[in-house]
Automatic annotation (TrEMBL):
Biased composition (Polar residues): 359-377
The keyword Disulfide bond is assigned to this record: no
Protein name per Swiss-Prot or TrEMBL: Leucine-rich repeat-containing protein 41
Region (Disordered) residue spans: 207-247, 356-382
Organism: Aptenodytes patagonicus (King penguin)
Signal sequence, start to end: 1-22
PANTHER family, sorted: LEUCINE-RICH REPEAT-CONTAINING PROTEIN 41, MUF1
Gene Ontology CC annotations of this record: cytoplasm; nucleus
Domain of life: Eukaryota
Alphabetic keyword roster: Leucine-rich repeat, Phosphoprotein, Repeat, Signal, Ubl conjugation pathway
Length: 756
């Protein structure tokens, strides 16, 4: 209730605990606490946060970073009096503001958060946390993995985490990696069956209670139905196949017991009886099992080979029901995460051995493969996946209840083995909640086909939500355009597709047997809005790209990186198709594409009335050009009122061309250009100052009416004359927002010479 002027003077004197409690009062008084939180950041964190210009709430930024630093033991709360308040519990009071959290190294943070005294902290995180990151993980023991299981279960299965990202894990612990992937997809194995929680979880106990009540009603109804059914059979004395009531009860009990034994036997072949094995090989599973679950027909066929079970096929449904109830009652203490690994790589293989036999038997008859067949078959160890070994099979998911799963999965710089790729493929095959998938520098190689198999299986689900796919790696195992066409043919509903490779694999032509090129796969009309392709120095053959563009009528952003133009006509054809088939294209980017001999096409793009952002990054625009070409660029941009952003990094503009670009904003210009990027262009301080003076003159002539708002100056030679550079930047910042860095040009030049 303090007056505003008193509150304004009091706020900087408060501890973090008191400042947080005074936030509402300050807001009602029309006072902003943002400057105070920003000063707290500078005083306590003593670092400049990345992208500080984009931070909208310093309160949240401070408390979120504060939580992470305290959790990992890198910040001592006694180091600043504003943090040292006996009412202030660092983790508890900052946790409601944490929307993203990074766990690293030995997962000490997971152990701390699952400790008994931090139960309330974990509950807060379950409601606030959206992004969970893992970075630089190391192998961990069983107790640490158990803490991780509890954490993931609470934050993902019963929480609000929607994104799981993993970074920089050069030698991943396979057990730990599979554990994180599986729980992110909504699965948790405990005991001898695929279930999703253990008894200490109160939320799961509540769900179990509701399920048990529902199951009791189902049992009662089923019992009444069985009584009526067998009563009718007793009345039909003329039927020679009607069993006696006593036999039915005994045989039914034996059927239930055998079924329980079959389904609950852990990490061993589900049926040891040789007769059963022969029977199961003769009668393959239904095709529905390849989508991640075992068909009821498979179970039925396994049971039919037992002499007792042949008499009681009619009680199969009841037996399955009893087995499910037994599973619910048998959910015991936490499972060893090693069991999950065994389940993925052992039990799953057993459940699908017949499927593999069926696939191999029919391979000669049906020449369809992952690229041309109807989508829906996850990876089952085809030739492309067998190159690196492994024994992973398919998850038996169809009959299982799934927990909540995340919608974004990102894997950066984590090598994936053949086993892990097959596990991921099988998880992807039914991960319908997944919206964003990022696989970056995972060393996939031939296992890219395994991942594609899982994605095509996922595309069969009508409720699939996948909208963003980003794949990048050092070596490409297939041509970029072929990969683009394969993904789009399976997912025409994608909004964003990014394919990026650094180098071309010399063995690219050695594809798995039975998987011909899908470069001729028909591409249905797609919803694609953003397409990014980084070619590993491949020729840009428009014959493969144009069908993709023609099918993408909604395309708004196109980025082509590191492509070579085999002939001068290729770029012209591309521009024609863009104009005819992509009327909504707003952003076009070329990076590291030699456009020195394509001046005509460059000018055509700059005068396009629809494009709002054009990027020519390291495109050698002025390598063999004359001064007339620069004048034509300036005049073209001056007449274009739709272009908002022009990015020209790495084109050796130098001082004189930068000064000339200031004429874009002259009095006779109709340009609406707001952003200009001239990074990495050998600009010196005197050239920048001259550009600034010329720009100021044009602004005065236009009466201060100019739309120019952002100038990017990264990696230029501004350190050669610090005083002149500071004057130029000071005057520029009065006109627009300037983004630059403290770049050591002499060291950069030395590095350049050293690698020549």
């Amino acid at each position: 209730a303090l007056p505003g002027h008193l509150l304004r003077g009091l706020l900087p004197l408060l501890t973090v605990f008191r400042l947080e409690r005074a936030e509402g009062a300050a807001r009602r008084a029309g006072l902003s606490t943002q400057p105070i939180w920003r000063k707290l950041w500078d005083d306590v964190m003593k670092t400049r946060p990345p992208n500080s210009e984009n931070i909208t709430c310093w309160r949240k930024k401070f408390l979120e970073t504060f939580f992470s630093n305290v959790l990992h033991g890198v910040l001592d709360v006694s180091s600043d009096w504003r943090l040292n308040d006996h009412h202030f519990s660092p983790l508890l009071h900052s946790s409601p503001h944490v929307s993203q959290l990074t766990l690293c190294n030995m997962l000490q943070g997971a152990v701390e958060l699952t400790a008994e005294h931090n139960q309330k902290v974990l509950e807060n995180l379950a409601g606030s946390l959206r992004i969970l990151k893992f970075q630089h993980l190391l192998s961990s023991d069983q107790s640490i993995r158990r803490s991780l299981v509890l954490l993931l279960h609470r934050l993902i299965h019963h929480g609000s985490v929607s994104q799981v990202s993993m970074y920089s894990w050069p030698v991943p612990d396979t057990v730990l990696l599979v554990l994180i992937l599986s729980m992110s997809a909504g699965f948790w194995r405990s005991g001898n069956a695929l279930v999703y929680h253990s008894s200490p979880c109160g939320l799961c106990r509540e769900e179990d209670k509701a399920q048990s009540q529902e199951s009791a009603q189902e049992r009662a109804e089923r019992g009444r139905y069985d009584e009526r059914e067998w009563s009718d059979d007793e009345n039909q004395k003329e039927s020679p196949r009607a069993p006696k009531e006593a036999d039915v009860e005994v045989n039914g009990y034996e059927a239930d017991a055998c079924l329980n034994s079959v389904l609950s036997r852990p990490r061993s072949p589900p049926l040891q009886n040789q007769v059963c094995e022969e029977a199961s090989s003769e009668v393959p599973c239904d095709d529905t099992s390849i989508q991640g679950g075992s068909s009821p027909r498979c179970i039925s066929d396994q049971l039919s080979c037992h002499p007792v079970l042949r008499k009681t096929r009619r009680r199969l449904k009841s037996a399955v029901g009893k087995k499910r109830r037994c599973l619910r009652r048998s959910r015991g203490p936490y499972a060893d995460p090693e069991d999950l690994y065994d389940f993925v790589f052992t039990v799953a293989r057993e459940d699908n051995s017949r499927l593999l036999d069926k696939n191999s038997a029919t391979e000669g008859e049906n020449a369809e493969n992952w690229s041309t067949s109807s989508p829906g078959s996850p990876c089952t160890g085809h030739a492309g996946c067998k190159k690196r070994g492994g024994s992973a099979g398919i998850f038996s998911l169809k009959a299982a209840h799934r927990f909540r799963s995340v919608s974004t999965l990102e894997l950066f710089s984590i090598p994936l083995t053949g086993e892990t790729c097959r596990t991921l493929s099988n998880l992807l095959s039914s991960w319908v909640s997944l919206e964003n998938l990022v696989l970056s520098y995972n060393g996939l190689g031939a296992d890219i086909f395994c991942i594609l198999s899982g994605l095509r299986a996922l595309s069969r689900h009508s409720d699939c939500h996948l909208r963003v796919v980003r794949v990048s790696d050092v070596f490409s195992h297939m041509p970029c355009m072929e990969l683009v066409r394969c993904i789009l043919s399976a997912f025409p509903q994608l909004h964003t597709l990014s394919v990026s490779f650094d180098l071309k694999n010399q063995l690219e032509g050695n594809r798995p047997e039975g998987n011909p090129s899908c470069s001729e796969v028909e591409i249905p009309e797609s919803c694609l809005e953003q397409l990014e392709i980084r070619f590993p120095r491949e020729p840009l053959h428009t014959a493969f790209l144009l069908p993709v563009l023609k099918a993408s009528k909604s395309l708004q952003q196109l980025s082509l990186d590191s492509a070579t133009l085999p002939c001068s006509q290729e770029l012209g054809l591309l521009l024609e198709v863009l104009k005819e088939c992509n009327p909504n294209l707003k952003k076009l980017s070329f990076h590291d594409v030699n456009l020195a001999e394509h001046q005509k096409e460059v000018l055509l793009l700059l005068q396009d009335p629809v494009l709002q952002e054009i990027t020519f990054s390291f495109c050698r625009l002025f390598e063999s050009s004359t001064t007339e070409f620069l004048s034509e660029i300036i005049n073209t941009v001056k007449r274009n009122s739709s272009l908002k952003s022009l990015k020209l990094p790495g084109n050796r503009l130098g001082n004189h061309r930068l000064v000339a670009l200031a004429d874009i904003f002259s009095e006779d210009s109709s340009s609406s250009l707001c952003q200009l990027d001239v990074s990495s262009n050998c600009i010196k301080p005197d050239g920048l100052l001259e550009f600034t003076k010329k720009l100021e003159g044009h602004i005065q002539q236009r009466g201060g009416q100019i739309q120019f708002t952002h100038l990017r100056l990264f990696q230029n030679w501004l350190d050669q004359d610090a005083e002149t550079a500071q004057e130029a930047l000071r005057r520029l910042k009065a006109v627009c927002s300037v983004v630059n860095d403290s770049w050591d040009s002499s060291q950069a030049f030395a590095d350049y010479i050293s690698v020549m």
